[in-house]
Structures are given as C-alpha cells and as structure tokens.
Amino acid sequence: MVSLAEKLRECGVAGAGGAGFPTYIKAQSSAEFVLANGAECEPLIHKDAEIMKHFPEGILAGMEAMITATGARLGKFGVKTKNAESLAALERHANRERIEFVPLGDFYPSGDEYELVYSATGRLIPPAGIPLNVGCVVNNVETLFNVDRASRGEPVTEKFLSVCGAVRKARSFWAPVGMTFRELVALAGGAQVADPVLFVNGIMMGSMSRDFDGVVTKTTGGLIVLPGDHYLVTRRDRSIPEMARIGKSACDQCSYCTEFCPRYLLGYEVQPHKVMRSLGFTTTGGDIWNQWAELCCSCGLCTLYACPEDLYPKEACDAGKLSRKTAGLKFIQQKPVQVHPMKEYRRVPLAQLRKRLQIEEYEREAPFEQPEIRPARVRIKWKQHAGVPAEPCVAEGARVSRGQTVGRAPRDKLGVSVHASMDGVVARLAEEFIEIVA
Ligand code: SF4
Ligand code: SF4
C-alpha cells in the first residue's frame, strides 16, 4: 500500500502557510499531537478564515490523516474566537474524541509555531528547535486540506488566497498555480489607486513588489494592494544600507523593540536592541551583538509596531542572522526558556496593529467567491517550497493535462513534485519555471 507520505510527495504537498516545508517529512514522523494552525494573523488577509468556513470537512479529514500517519494521540486545532463562523463550521464536523479546539485571541503573531505550540500544549520548543522536539507536528489549515486531497490522489494545482487592500472587491478564491498577480488583481475588480504596489503574502512577513507579472506559487497566501505613496511603501522602499545607516545614528537604545518581541516574551534570547548595536561595528565585532538575532522569527513587530523612531530592527536581525550563518557561527541559548512575566500584558491586538500600520481603511471581509478562471498561460516554478527544485519530466511541445506531473524532485533530496495547473501545451522549459499555454 502506498503510504500517506509517498502520496504527499508525489502530489506535491508543501506547507501552504508560507514556509513551504514539504509535508511528507511531517507525515513520516511520530508525534503526540497534530496541531492545525488556523490562527491567521497577517493584517487584512482572511483566506484561512474563509477556507475553514467553506471547506471544514476536507481540513478535518486531512488532520485525521496526519493524526493516523504520525500515531498522535490527539489533534489540536488553533483558531481565533473572532472567526466564530469558521469555528462553528469546524465544530459541526469534528470528531471530538480525536480533535479538540484551542481558542485564540486576536493578537499578532499568535500563528507563530513557537506561540501556537505553547498556546495549545503549554510546551516550549527548545531554542532553535522544531515542534517535533516537544512531540508536535504543526500544519496550516490549507495544507491539511491538500493532505486530504492527496490522500485521494489529487495533486496540488491551485492555491487558496485573498486579494485585498485597495481593490474594488476584496475576495478569496482558488487560483491556478502559475497565474499572474495582474490577473489576480483584475479578478478582485482591479486596483482602486493609480500607482498600486503589492504586498505578497502580507505586510508583516511578506515582500513588497511592483512586479505584476509575478506568479502564484504553492505558498502564495494573499496579495494586498496599497497606493504607491502609502507610509508602508515609503518605509519598505529604503535600501538595506540606508536602513542600517539611519539605525546606526538614530537608535537611542530604548529597547522597546525587545520589550515587545514575541520570542523574547516567550523566554528566548532574542534582543533586537542589542542587534542594533552591531550597526556601529562595521569592521569587526558586529557578530557578537548579532547573536541576539539568531532565534528571531522575522515577525516584523519590532520594525513596524514597537520602534518609536521608525527604525528597522527586524531588518538588522535578518542581516545579523545571515552574517553569522556566513561566518559559520551558531548561538546556543544556555539559560532555560522561561516565559516573561509580562507576556500576557504585552500582546499586540490586530486592531492596534492595523492602526499603527495606517491600514484601517482597508480592513474588510474577503469572502470566498470562486470566479471562473481560464488563464491563457501559466508559469509554474520548479522551486516553490523548502528543498531542491523539481526537475522537468516532460518535453517542450508536449501536450499536458491539468494535474499531470511535469516535474519531480530527485528521490534522495528534500522536495516535492510539480503538476500542470491547466490543460495545454508546454511552450517553454526555463531554468526556473515551465510555461504552459492553453
Ligand atoms: S525600539 Fe527603535 S530606537 Fe528603541 S532600541 Fe529598538 S531600534 Fe532602537
Ligand atoms: S522580527 Fe523583531 S519582534 Fe519579531 S521575532 Fe524578530 S526581533 Fe522579535
């Protein structure tokens, strides 16, 4: 019999929540708990709330499949109480002997794996560890939906996402992998502003782009359109050296960035204000201060919420992590992880975050409405997830049908297969993608 892990690899299932870790690895492990991550805390994006509301049975079936595969004794489903309709839909279909619900408040970033594992089990993942170290396997809700499909032999060919912000009709829907951002924005009624800029996968942890020819991958969770003169665009438009230069001269070491850091409040040795000191050590010594960045999860709260000077501690942490990795340095936290006594009182409500980000006017529902989608062409990337890229297994000029495997990862490497997301002809096999024309 073909194992669930083998089906997940063949059907191309990778984490749909952002990181894109191949799910078959998780299905091969032994765990005590399987956690469903339905926390969704990126401001303005509501695709997880919508998928839970409209597809609860598939998500729960995927969770049951993972519970069986890992030998877990219980599934724990993290979902925000504000998403009452989604929660009710899930509760109606859940096997309560196998799955219990963990109600979460509307805070940022309650979907961080370390946070979710702590909320659901009271366990703290060891520094630089993974949920499995404390008996947990965590999957995003859409990933679980894809697990169920794959268990029936259906590959991942589309992505559930929200298109929101300055668009005429914010909505959530399934989009074929490989279609362009331009087409997605058009499906949301088009941009409402003359100079639109995209935040791909969110404002806090996503990337900013002006490339409307970018394409949907298995990890694209949403597109947020903002006007080109928005405060957030101006902040992101700075180059990394510019961010560092400003930080070096303007940081007053107030340490608010550290005091609000969710990893610091959980008890990990992350202290972005100390990382900011590294900016002054341009020739040598910077990596000593950069060690305080190593356990940072890049949530962006320090840069976009905590810092009263509008500086860039998150970007300093990203640079610090990279610098230490390049130098082959590893920081091992020595002291035991101990939750900060102020943790519960320093949580950041989403409403407060939206205010600080100046995006309150764009907060609205993005209801699930499936449009008819017939792209003229798709560009499907060989690498859409953690691990190695898939290698083509079809030739240029070949006729392919939706769901057909067009690329496979080498057997001995971490990776998953890639499939055609529509019927058509292979027009091009480029180094980074396959182009299929209808
Ligand atoms: S909050 Fe801003 S000013 Fe204060 S220490 Fe952090 S980076 Fe410096
Ligand atoms: S981005 Fe900032 S707030 Fe978030 S974990 Fe890293 S240091 Fe902490």
Tell me the distance between the termini.
36 Å
| The CATH superfamily title of the largest domain | NADH-ubiquinone oxidoreductase 51kDa subunit
Mean pLDDT: 95
Query: Major sheet: order of its strands?
Result: 7-6-10-8-9
Radius of gyration: 22 Å
Discrete helix count: 17
**Largest sheet entry:** 5 strands, mixed
For this structure, the CATH topology of the largest domain is Rossmann fold
| Unreliable residue stretches | none
CATH class of the largest domain: Alpha Beta
Strand percentage lies at: 15-25%
Question: Helical amount among residues, as a percent range?
Answer: 25-40%
Helix-strand category: alpha+beta
CATH architecture annotation name of the largest domain? 3-Layer(aba) Sandwich
